[in-house]
Fold this sequence. Notes:
It is a single chain. This protein has ten helices and twelve strands. The protein is of the alpha/beta class. It has two domains: 49-198, ABC-type transport auxiliary lipoprotein component (Rossmann fold, 3-Layer(aba) Sandwich), CATH 3.40.50; 202-361, Rossmann fold (3-Layer(aba) Sandwich). Strands 1, 2, 3, 4, 5 and 6 form a six-stranded mixed sheet that branches. Strands 7, 8, 9, 10, 11 and 12 form a six-stranded mixed sheet that branches. Strand 11 and strand 12 form a beta hairpin. The chain is globular, with a radius of gyration of 28 Å.
Amino acid sequence: xxxxxxxxxxxxxxxxxxxxxxxxxxxxxxxxxxxxxxxxxxxxxxxxxxxxxxxxxxxxxxxxxxxxxxxxxxxxxxxxxxxxxxxxxxxxxxxxxxxxxxxxxxxxxxxxxxxxxxxxxxxxxxxxxxxxxxxxxxxxxxxxxxxxxxxxxxxxxxxxxxxxxxxxxxxxxxxxxxxxxxxxxxxxxxxxxxxxxxxxxxxxxxxxxxxxxxxxxxxxxxxxxxxxxxxxxxxxxxxxxxxxxxxxxxxxxxxxxxxxxxxxxxxxxxxxxxxxxxxxxxxxxxxxxxxxxxxxxxxxxxxxxxxxxxxxxxxxxxxxxxxxxxxxxxxxxxxxxxxxxxxxxxxxxxxxxxxxxxxxx
Length: 361
């Protein structure tokens, strides 16, 4: 039988030599100074590029006069904790007074650029509270959006809502009984997607949409703006659409002297198209809106909407959706929706899903 090229003793010597060389090389790498890499302390880069944000007082569409006293401090705390520099209240109040701003639920492009120029604000946070109740089953729902001060465009928007019963697990465990416990949970859901950088949407395959104030045919006073804001949030989430900040839409409505809600004539469509440079205009009605509490029933909404091609005055799509909180129930009340604003958001989400099939022509 042939022997190996090296006797066994020589092979052992070669292995020892390789091991020694490996250890010497490893020791040299440990002793040599590091080059090309640096470990940065957490937050160092964020601190260097800290953005200043102005927080406008949210609009309160709930039945509670105390809602904003709870909500606004929580919003400010969250934003400050996220590493943003907040514009102080004195400077913001002085600016709003000087510019004679009467409502802080929306912002025009001109006002956004003005506050950015004068106070160094990179973006403005706006929002709306839809539901706020501190009864035995606390309820809280709101939406918010961030508007770029340089462009007046929406760079983030989202919505969140919950009731205390929504957290109930088997045997009644987990249920939330107080607003103090519910509020941070809803806030966490709302700002989980927060970003100061806008999502990329392909310009050639996305459509710029102006959402008009909805006509309110329900018995609930002042609820016409709820679908307007929720449609903006859902359009922002969708890769096909770019919603226009309502402050710009509001300016266009004033300039075109549009007084009717839920309708828009050909002349007004042309003026809105030129002023806002939009592809589509969304109009609609709140046909029914009920939380069902007075009847011990599930919350229910009926919302109708139409999408108009702003370039040729044609109705591209129309739809109506009725939904109540019991529609998605599976087993043991799982899937039940207990807040009416959340039912409205689900209905609007379904309307937009149907609208996606529209052929633009």
